[in-house]
Amino acid sequence: MKINSSNIILDSDPRIRQKSELVSLPLNDEDKELLSSMLTYVRDSQDPEIAQKEGLQPAVGIAAIQLGIPKQLIAVVIPYEDGVDEVALANPKIISESTQVGYLDSGEGCLSVKDEHPGHVFRHARIKVRGYDLIQDKNVVISAEGYFAIALQHEIDHLSGILFYDRIDKNNPWKEDAEAEVI
């Protein structure tokens, strides 16, 4: 399955608020292909040449529900100068989280959200996530912090029908927290 920006549903589509269902493990061929295609989309969207040629919006993550498919599948790719954090997870579940919060100083964005929703989205600064990782072909527990942790929480929220702007304080969107990790 080839994914491009035209496959992605927007927040005006009620399906984006649908709760995603657990997938059976081991993954069937259809779910493997879908998750692999999601990972490919995110990887390719970060290459400006490929993104322009294939009509891809730049992304660090995607959830199956953004394609209108209510399955607990997410892909996240965070490139760094010295490597990459990347996962293609089935049935991801946060199993522990820090009390300290973190947020992206410039706010968050989403492939399914075209309108601006400025403000800070407070999330846990560090998390542990359990799930099946297609890349490693096994059940894993991932310890994540910083941008990787925020991206994972953003995508896992999609599985419950939650969008990033649901977490912005409507009365004080740019509020700060002196104890928070600012990314």
Set out the fold topology:
Layout: H1 29-45, H2 48-54, E1 61-63, E2 73-80, E3 83-97, E4 101-103, E5 123-124, E6 126-133, E7 138-145, H3 146-158, E8 181-182
Parallel strand pairs: 4-8
Antiparallel strand pairs: 1-2, 2-3, 3-6, 4-5, 6-7
Family: Belongs to the polypeptide deformylase family.
Protein name: Peptide deformylase
InterPro entries: Peptide_deformylase, Peptide_deformylase_sf
Polypeptide structure, described:
Pfam families: Pep_deformylase. It comes from Floccifex porci. Removes the formyl group from the N-terminal Met of newly synthesized proteins. Requires at least a dipeptide for an efficient rate of reaction. N-terminal L-methionine is a prerequisite for activity but the enzyme has broad specificity at other positions. It catalyses: N-terminal N-formyl-L-methionyl-[peptide] + H2O = N-terminal L-methionyl-[peptide] + formate. One of its GO terms (molecular function) is peptide deformylase activity. This protein has 183 residues and is of the alpha+beta class. The chain has one domain (5-182): Peptide deformylase (Peptide Deformylase, Alpha-Beta Complex), CATH 3.90.45.10. 20% of the residues lie in helices and 27% in strands. The chain has three helices and eight strands; from the N terminus they run ααβββββββαβ. The chain has helices spanning 29-45, 48-54, 146-158; strands spanning 61-63, 73-80, 83-97, 101-103, 123-124, 126-133, 138-145, 181-182. Strands 1-2-3-6-7 form a five-stranded antiparallel beta sheet. The longest helix is centred in the N-terminal third of the chain and has 17 residues, at 29-45. The radius of gyration is 16 Å and the shape is globular. The mean pLDDT is 97.
